[in-house]
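Hey forum,

I'm writing up a methods section and want to include a predicted complex as supplementary material. The small molecule is zinc ion. I've pasted the protein sequence and the SMILES. Can someone with a working setup run it? I'll credit the forum in the acknowledgements.
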Amino acid sequence: MAPSGSRSIKRGCQRVLYWIPVLFIALIVAWSYYAYVLQLCIESIEDTGEKVVYLLVYHVIFIMFVWAYWQTIFTKPMNPLKEFHLSHSDKELLEREDRGESQQEILRRIAKDLPIYTRTNSGAIRFCDRCQLLKPDRCHHCSVCDKCILKMDHHCPWVNNCVGFANYKFFMLFLLYSLLYCLFITATDLQYFIKFWTAGGRAHFRLKEYLNGLPDTQAKFHILFLFFSASMFSVSLASLFIYHCWLVCKNRSTLEAVRSPVFRHGTDKNGFSLGFSKNFRQVFGDEVKYWPIPVFSSLGDGCSFPTCLVNLDPEQPSSPTGSNPANKSAAEGRQFPSKPLRESQSRLLTSTPSWSENETATDKDRKGASNPGMTIENEA
Ligand SMILES: [Zn+2]
Ligand SMILES: [Zn+2]
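Reply by user p_vandermeer:
Happy to help. Structure tokens for the complex are below, copy them as they are.
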């Protein structure tokens, strides 16, 4: 009993520690609110028009930023559907086999009815030992969450959550609004920063108070520090945001950018790319009005992803993921999922865009053939 008790205490402590980065961000944001609204706008800016405009714009960005951050933190990552979990009998069967090859045989039989196109580096079926399931494409086991996460991007300590299919849009909006937040503060704080810095405060400042004593020394500290921190955060957020925009355009997760997904015919970093417009809509959805707000509008179910490669692979079962319009009839004879695709996903698959960009990209980047090894992947 004792070891499991101490393990649960350790896990409890870990869970508390994981919230520290979130708390740190929350404190910085709370302080920045105080410094900007109270110290800069209300205390230091004397022009009423300027004050009102700054406060209005600031609050719009602030609300969107906090909303997106909240959604990124508290949206539960999605886990694979029960179709991907081993049945009781399959588990027993797998346990009885001790050779990797026979285990792979069993897994391959189960995978036949599922829309799984990616493999391990050695060409084996991707299986999670911990969760006892066949990993859907783009799904990975997160060792921090101790779960398989659909379309896992990365585990982000700053939101104490896995960024994946369920909250990737929120994460993108969080990056966008936090960047706007920092840029807006930097831009509007700049002139006051310069005035204080050069200590030549003219009309706008209560320079007398500043020179005479405490109150504006305090304002000075907040305004200077606000400018430094906002401009520094702007630089790091901008680089992260640009990187993730690039990933969205290419339809890659961070994990896939580090290690390209392996299909049956070999690795292909553009295996899930459907062209810019569709890649973008896969994350942000079809309806423009939902793009800027942190409500879920991504397309698909997170378990299966359209890929332009399916019809290149003669061994693939007819599947829902034929993205080529010519492949539509094959897709109609699919075995999975048993319930119809959500309307949003069907739209993503069947509308007829230009495929030329996509096809040339995949031809160019296709490399190497998979090697039919027989190991069971365990990324935990
Ligand atoms: Zn797992
Ligand atoms: Zn995680």
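Some notes you might quote in the supplement: Residues 128, 130-131, 141, 147-148 surround zinc ion (ligand 1) (CB under 6 Å). The beta strands are 118-119, 127-128, 133-134, 140-142, 147-149, 154-156, 161-163, 262-263, 266-267.
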